[in-house]
Amino acid sequence: MVAGSTFLAMLAYSGPLGNVVTLSQAFGSSRAGSTWILASMSVGLAVTLLAAGVVADRIGHRRVFRLGAVVFTAASVVSALAGTTPVFVLARVVAGAGATGMIATGLGLAGAVSAHARHRATTATAWSAAMGAGIALGPLLTGLLDLIGAWRGFYGLLALGGLAVWAGTRRLPGGTGLGRSAPSRRFDLAGFTLLTVFLAVAVTAIVEVRAGGPVTATVLFAVAALLFGALIASQRIGTARLVDPRLFTHRPFQAATVAGFGTGIGVVATMSFACTFLVDGLGMSTLQAGALLAAWSGTSAVAALLLARHTAKVSATVQLVTGLGGVTVGLALVTGISATSGIGRLMPGLIVAGLASGLLNTGLARQAVATVPADDAAMGTGANNTARYLGSSIGVSAASIIATGGDLVAGWDRVVWLGAAASLASAILVTILSRRARTSPAAPPIRSPSSPP
């Protein structure tokens, strides 16, 4: 169930990368509308992931997982029937919120079935492979459907997949963490509301920068700053807390969050921009661009499976640092591309980045759950993925600004070097945080007494 729902969510997330031009033409979208078509599901994911994780840890992972499948299915139906850009964008935002319910709770559900280290490693591998496979097949599928003028069929297939996931949840076993959890603290309604609104405003501001609305973006950033201040104040003076405050000083949790953000702003953002470069810069079709992008994402899925036996023998920190370092090398290899460069010139870098991404995603899946208390597994997954999608939103916005107004081929180099630098900086910071965690004289007792080692 974890692998299937993650695959479906990533399939939905990556699909428009392959045919945003088709969608924009179908709806008669403006430049800002096209930007929102690409960003809409990312916004839904980034805004709701952490909040969904906090709620799931309070009312039960299975409930939120099932609700997420229902919301995802309904939103996919609306996407398939949409006739205007605003309706389609809103449906995609809601689909992202529905996917959140599955992503934030999936690893926690699997962890509740078995706390054995080998089982957790197997789940992390399946999660990583499903993520890579979904991202690889999404653009390919939309590109193929474009050939027969059936772009709406993609969202019909997503709706059927969401319905299948919902039906499968009825067979999930009962047990601790699957139904209603026993909260160790009161639910922080004020903090939950402020967090959700802050993320919504902040991510919208980031997208508006990319859509070309500087005045609107500036106002939204100012509002986001005020909301963030209110959120911090509520956590300091309120009687309830969203999460255990000690987590923010817990080095492993910090390292996992940095790695998630570095993944988003580095390789995910760069590869999200790659289709635009391949189509507009090198003149490829959407199907060709999607197929070439699969050299990265498909390789990451295969790598997660092939390396599973070996990665279980090393720490998750080694996976994170090695993965980020490998991504840096892979991105560096796809610089220096000219308008006459063939596919062979891009393949080595995409494959190296794909191998590293498979290792990196597996490490992120392990650490998202391992660095938080057992009762907060969904929150840990939500926090890690929130960092990833916030990083992706910032990275793609920066890429669009850097590559706009000049030669797109030359702009590609600047975008890639930015992604490589962000990946390398994240690897260095993760290393520093991990070393400080090992040398700390007294790490905070984050994990509850009943939690597995």
UniProtKB/TrEMBL annotation:
Concerning InterPro entries, the annotation shows:
MFS, MFS_dom, MFS_trans_sf
- Say if the entry is tagged with keyword Membrane: yes
Q: Which UniProt keywords apply?
A: Membrane, Transmembrane, Transmembrane helix
| Primary residence | membrane
SUPFAM superfamilies for this protein = MFS general substrate transporter
Q: Where do the Major facilitator superfamily (MFS) profile domain residues begin and end? A: 1-438
> Metal-binding: is it a keyword of this entry?
no
- Signal peptide positions are none
Task: Identify the PANTHER family for this entry.
Answer: EXPORT PROTEIN, MAJOR FACILITATOR SUPERFAMILY MULTIDRUG TRANSPORTER MFSC
Q: What is this protein called?
A: MFS transporter
Q: Per the UniProt entry, what species is this protein from, by scientific name?
A: Amycolatopsis ultiminotia
